[in-house]
Amino acid sequence: AFSPRVFSGIQPSGDLHLGNYLGAIRRFVPLQDTHETIYCVVDMHAITVWQEPNDLRRATREVAAAFIAAGVDPKRSIVFNQSQVMQHAELAWVFNCIARIGWMNRMTQFKDKAGKNSENVSLGLLAYPSLMAADILLYKATAVPVGDDQKQHLELTRDIAAKFNNDYAASIVEQGLDPDFFPITEPLIAGPATRIMSLRDGTKKMSKSDPSDQSRISLLDDADAISKKIKKATTDPAELPLDVEGLKGRPEADNLVGIYAALSDKTKAEVLTEFGGQGWGKFKPALADLAVAQLAPMSGEMRRLIEDTTTIDGILRDGGERAAAIAEKTMHDVRRIVGF
Ligand code: ADP
Ligand code: NA
Prior knowledge:
- It is a single chain.
- By secondary structure, the protein is mostly helical.
- The chain has helices at 18-31, 43-46, 53-70, 87-96, 101-105, 108-114, 123-138, 151-167, 169-174, 223-232, 251-263, 268-275, 280-307, 309-338; strands at residues 5-10, 36-41, 77-81, 143-145, 186-188.
- The protein has two domains: 5-188 and 309-338, Rossmann fold; 223-304, Tyrosyl-Transfer RNA Synthetase.
- 55% of the residues lie in helices and 7% in strands.
- The radius of gyration is 21 Å and the shape is globular.
- Adenosine-5'-diphosphate binds next to helix 1.
């Protein structure tokens, strides 16, 4: 008996890019019609790797601006930053004591980010999925729209919810609460753009944290920059295949067709019906036009909003208060369940 509620977060850890937009932010907007929606700038996640304080403050406003510019309505949705609602840290600690170290050690994102240096990364980086579970479960969110890279973390959130419900089953009942105290949250990973790859190398994820990747399409890029980056995207020499089967083993082609499909609300098959058998010289300019038409107005609006710090800070403050009201209800129960 959980009401349909969506939670999703973005880290203020660098340049927002096309992958964040297609995999997450763009999908936040229609969910406002069907769910109660809570969108968070996860600044506490960002500091799991070093962030200059002033950069963090600027990037936090930038992510909030991106939400609004993309069509998230701060009246219909709760928009806030994580550090303003202290219950995130409080529940994360309880979850640190529920989750097992072995679960954390298996996370592929941790292994990727820690690399060979796993003894000298922050403890927070290892515990990251536990904080993410707290973000989601504080609001008893039933669904989380994310990109494919977050799938494993969502599974861990479900494991933490189930273990908490199970470990504390007797106490939950004793407190007169619903035995399904935390929901088993559904990941919403769907559509043709669940994992946008780098335009330089179709085998690497487009990511905020790779400063050397000049091919990344930033949500702050103007029309000219967007168009140039798409025209320079690495491709194989063959023409576009006639069907989706023909995209197999062609990561760059698959990526560009996926981006076109996501931006135009089509399937890859539909895009190939239109462009199959044609060369990149035909497809790339069409993709560039489409991307410019969608992204350039948004980047203009983002740039305007980033300057208007009073408005952005007001939205985050108001959202923080609304989020805290829900979060405190959950924490109030959790404290009693745990025995605090
Ligand atoms: P990043 O991985 O760029 O640092 P975050 O970890 O803050 O970004 O993720 C924010 C959201 O953007 C998540 O839902 C994540 O799954 C999504 N996302 C990140 N990169 C991509 C990508 N290349 N393609 C699709 N979705 C992505
Ligand atoms: Na990510």
